[in-house]
Design brief:
The chain is mostly helical. The chain contains 10 helices and 2 strands; from the N terminus they run βααβαααααααα.
Length: 308
């Protein structure tokens, strides 16, 4: 596979290794070993070849290092880069939810990144926007794990509210990622995700991070009916925000692909597939909200993230 980007590597832990406590993430902000050495021999062996190809395209590498410092560094780096793509002429953010996500992770905006990068290329937006999406996806997984395992309703509510912040920022990342002309997508981006530049069927289905996010959402959807009624408002907000992310995702697909086929599914329109999967995911969470048994889709068909 020919890697599309020459960007520096973004290091992330395998998502199944993420911790279960938001305090672990926030404590990592000030850890003296927050920026660990990342020798090649610490890369994880025997990875799924499709997940490895997906990571390679976006210059993501996995490491067996302590997950929380890796994730904090990834959030800090990707947020700083994408903020620079999303500023108005007066310096204000076009997507202020990025700063809310930073706050939820215990980060403060970096100094010296206030100047807009007006010369960002299509490739930079596509790669960097996705990398932010991956980091926010991992943060959402961690927050959902916190909600599931917190010993009190207040702790679970904190996890749900934090997950909502990270998901709102994920919708922002999708919009920023796609802030270029459809012609540029068809001329530059889409060919890079098709043979011979990338393996046939290249798809967000191959993302390890989003696969684990879907599992975490499903776990919360099953657990929520048995939780305290105090959590219902936070759960409802989570459902609403997830719907916003899906709308943003469908909007990107509709803008660039329209009624055309996805790279993975061939003749089936990409927007149609994505919309169906989005509705299934909401059903899993809505069922819990309404005290009905969760109607869960087949996991084999329910792991599609960014679909191009």
């Amino acid at each position: 596979m020919t890697q599309m980007t020459s960007e520096s590597v973004l290091w992330l832990a395998p998502p199944q290794h993420l911790p279960h406590d938001l305090a672990t993430l926030r404590e990592a902000v000030n850890r003296p070993d927050r920026h660990p050495a990342l020798p090649d021999h610490r890369r994880l062996p025997e990875r799924d070849p499709r997940e490895a190809a997906f990571d390679e395209y976006f210059a993501v590498s996995r490491c067996a290092c302590t997950p929380a410092p890796l994730l904090i560094d990834a959030l800090d780096d990707t947020l700083a880069t994408v903020r620079a793509f999303s500023r108005n002429p007066d310096g204000s953010l076009t997507e202020p939810d990025l700063d809310l996500a930073a706050h939820a992770a215990g980060l403060t905006p970096r100094a010296g990144v206030s100047e807009p990068r007006t010369q960002a290329t299509v490739r930079q937006r596509w790669i960097q926007g996705h990398r932010l999406f991956f980091a926010l996806t991992q943060a959402t997984v961690l927050a959902l794990r916190h909600a599931l395992r917190a010993p009190s309703p207040a702790g679970s509510a904190l996890g749900l509210e934090s997950a909502a912040h990270f998901l709102r920022a994920s919708a922002s990342a999708l919009r920023i990622t796609a802030s270029f002309d459809a012609r540029d997508y068809h001329d530059t981006v889409r060919p890079s995700m098709a043979p011979p530049q990338a393996p046939r069927g290249f798809s967000g289905l191959w993302s390890a991070d989003h696969r684990v996010l879907v599992q975490s959402l499903r776990e919360w959807g099953l657990a929520a009916p048995g939780r305290s009624s105090i959590l219902r408002p936070a759960h409802r907000r989570l459902v609403e925000v997830l719907t916003d992310v899906h709308h943003a995702h469908v909007g990107v697909c509709s803008r660039f692909v329209g009624s055309g086929p996805s790279l993975l599914r061939g003749a089936e329109p990409g927007v149609q597939v994505l919309d169906r999967l989005c509705r299934r995911r909401r059903i899993a969470l809505d069922a819990a909200l309404a005290d009905r048994p969760a109607q869960l889709p087949d996991a084999r068909n329910e792991n599609l993230p960014l679909r191009h």
